[in-house]
Amino acid sequence: VRVPVVMTMHELEAPDVRSLNVLQRQLYFHAASVVTWPQLRALIVHTRALVEPLRDLMVPAELIHVQPMPVPALPPLLEADAAKARLGLSGRLLAMLGFVVQRKGYEYALAVLPGLPLEVTLAIVGGRNEFDRTDYFERLQREVAKDEGLRERVVITGYVSPDDFHLWLAATDVVLAPFEAMSGSSSLALALAAGKPIVASRLPGLEEMNDLAPCLALADRPGAKDCRIDLNGFDRQLRRVLEDAEYRRSLEQGARL
User: Helix, strand or coil for residue 247?
Assistant: First the structure.
């Protein structure tokens, strides 16, 4: 008896098969069509933006099912000021949540922070992904440590327990997601569950999320094929969320829809 296999895919990291030579393409398509995809009953993705790349990888259309990322239930959270007091913080808190991987765009947050009021702190809440074979997490730590201005205003927690994660989430005023590539990180679903406004890059998957829960202030990219985001636009969106209380409340309400 064969057990049906259902796979959930949060994000896709695969070679562009169009860049492979003839032999590589033949080997890949044989493995995909004969060995890999026939084993699956269904492949669940969380955004429509992943459907076309999967079709390029020879995934049969009938296997692909799009289901929006579920928003989990959270335990009762402290009020933001009380959570900050527990953490020894004050002022405004920006946070980037979840595993630290390069595609999440930490450099954009570090670039705009010096221009923000001194009361603003950035927390990078999470540690390295065990599947990340680069030294990106360590390089990020070194970059912050060597810059006195950043060192005084950036907290990198490393891995935290679920209870401590909920404490940081409660303390957060604005979540940052300047992603250069779509990440199916559940950290954004947790931000939605907590009713936090999110300043993010205008990626198709994040636009889909915003259609369902209008809580994202989206910063444009220079072009549809450009993975970078416009730093000035990101800075403007973040400042608007921090300074415009009515706009911020509208995003908070959108997260709770």
Answer: helix
CB-facing half-sphere around the CA of 97: CA atoms within 13 A: 32
Residue 226: per-residue pLDDT: 60
Contact 113, 152 (CB under 8 A): no
Range name among 81-90, 105-114, 214-223, 241-250 with the lowest pLDDT average: 214-223
201, 227 in Cβ contact below 8 A? no
Strands across the sheet with 64-66, in order? Answer: 5-9, 40-45, 64-66
Q: What is the mean pLDDT of residues 168-186?
A: 89
- Beta bridge partners, 158, equal 125, 126
Percentage of the chain exceeding pLDDT 90: 59
Residues 193, 3: Cα–Cα separation, whole Å: 34
135 burial type by CB count under 10 A (0-12 exposed, 13-18 middle, 19+ buried): exposed
Measure the CA–CA gap between 68 and 144, rounded to whole angstroms: 35
For residue 14, give the DSSP letter.
-
The reported pTM is 0.86
In this predicted model, what pLDDT tens digit does every residue of 152-161 receive, in sequence order?
Answer: 999 999 999 9
Any residues with CB less than 8 A from the CB of 82 and at least 6 apart, and which?
170
Output phi, psi for 57, to 5 deg: -90, 15
For tokens 């999470």, the residue is 126
Euclidean distance between CA atoms 35 and 13, whole angstroms? 19
